[in-house]
Design a protein that fits this description.
370 residues, alpha/beta, Isopropylmalate Dehydrogenase, two-stranded antiparallel ribbon, binds 3-isopropylmalic acid, binds magnesium ion, 3-isopropylmalate dehydrogenase activity, leucine biosynthesis, EC 1.1.1.85, IsoCit/isopropylmalate_DH_CS, NAD
């Protein structure tokens, strides 16, 4: 890579900073190898930003995120900030980043690592080899729809309001991402909504169907109601290739799919926007797991989801597929060698801490590059 790239690190709260420390080491490894020339800038998000600035995302940090070539985020939130006003909760920082960077497509792979298949709460044969990609719409729907709020009615009762709303272009742009991804996989998209109850879901189904017919006739498109999809995910998860769904259903279904893999601490994600005139795609990468305040600062957290998020960054932001494959391979190696953090520990395996897992990944990278 000839041009240097500017990566914004937003470690956030809880275990965020310590898992990000391991990515710094991995990133330094790739820089030293000559494959990349990444420069890291650091910022605050979530509760740590609130403590420093009284807001979960300072305007200056928002600007850094918009200017960066890619953003890597750790995790936000924790009991310390649970009772803050809704408008300054740690999660608002994350939602602002998604909205203002216009990261409408959230890619959440649910992948079962062979060495961990037994850790799933489902029977091993149901999940062994599982490889689902959930594409969740991320900047629309009920998360952002207006009107919203809490109001007091004339009779003194209170009313909480949120609005599920989708415009055609919001559906089409995220559906394109799903169809394009499917082409590089098993060429199957299952589009998920509740068009039996919600007009927004009916529109979703109609628009996705039209787009499939006009532009993606080579991709097999099916439709499913969201409740059925939740059921099918735990019944026969391997029937899915790419699942395309809205913001709220995607939030629920991706947690469900994550648990199928038996290892929330392993799952990365990418949130992408539309390519601009200079060819840059706004992008933020983050592990699916949360801030795990109960184990924060104890060198117990699993850094692999964040390391794999960095791998997604290599692949989707910088077109470095070979480097991403190398890193994914190194993660597979350390699992096959038996290294485990507490969250994925199994009898007879080697328990390591956050730093120890980072050491193992670096050693595996050395060997593979060797
Ligand atoms: C997620 C999380 C967020 C969401 C929260 C932290 C706002 O659950 O990324 O899935 O609901 O989108
Ligand atoms: Mg969620």
């Amino acid at each position: 890579m000839s041009l240097s790239k500017n990566i914004l690190f937003l470690p956030g709260d809880g275990i965020g900073p310590e898992v990000m420390t391991q990515v710094r080491r991995v990133m330094a490894w790739f820089n030293a190898s000559g494959a990349t020339a990444f420069e890291i800038e650091d910022g605050l998000v979530g509760g740590s930003a609130y403590d420093a600035h009284g807001t979960p995302l300072h305007d200056d940090t928002m600007k850094l995120a918009l200017d960066a070539d890619a953003v890597l985020l750790g995790a936000v939130g924790g009991p310390k900030w649970d009772n803050l006003d809704f408008s300054v909760k740690p999660e608002r920082g994350l939602l602002r980043l998604r909205k203002e960077m216009e990261l409408f497509a959230n890619l959440r792979p649910a992948l079962v690592f062979e060495a961990l298949a037994e850790a799933s709460s489902l029977k091993t044969d149901l999940v062994a080899g599982l490889d689902i990609m959930i594409v969740r719409e991320l900047t629309g729907g009920v998360y952002f729809g207006q009107p919203r709020g809490i109001e007091t009615l004339p009779n003194g009762e209170r009313r909480g309001i949120n609005t599920q709303v989708y415009d055609t272009h919001e559906i089409i742009r995220v559906a394109r991402v799903a169809f394009d991804l499917a082409r590089a996989r098993d060429s199957r998209v299952c589009s998920v909504e509740k068009g039996n109850v919600m007009e927004s879901g009916l529109l979703w189904r109609e628009e996705v169907t039209k787009l499939g017919e006009s532009d993606y006739a080579d991709v097999a498109l099916s439709h499913m109601y969201a409740d059925n999809c939740a059921m099918q995910l735990v019944r026969r998860p391997k029937q899915f290739d790419v699942i395309l769904t809205d913001n709220l259903f995607g939030d629920l279904l991706s947690d469900c799919a994550a648990m199928l893999t038996g290892s929330l601490g392993m799952l990365p994600s990418a949130s992408l926007g539309a390519k601009d005139a200079n060819g840059k795609i706004p992008a933020m990468y983050e592990p699916v797991h949360g801030s795990a305040p109960d184990i924060a600062g104890q060198d117990k957290a699993n850094p692999l989801a964040t390391i794999l998020s960095f791998s997604m960054m290599l692949r989707y932001s910088f077109d470095l597929g070979a480097e991403a494959d190398l890193l994914d391979g190194a993660v597979n190696d350390v699992l096959n060698e038996g290294f485990r953090t507490g969250d994925i520990m199994q009898p007879g395996k080697t328990l390591v801490g956050t730093t120890g897992m980072g050491d193992a990944v670096l050693a595996a990278l050395d060997r593979r590059a060797g």
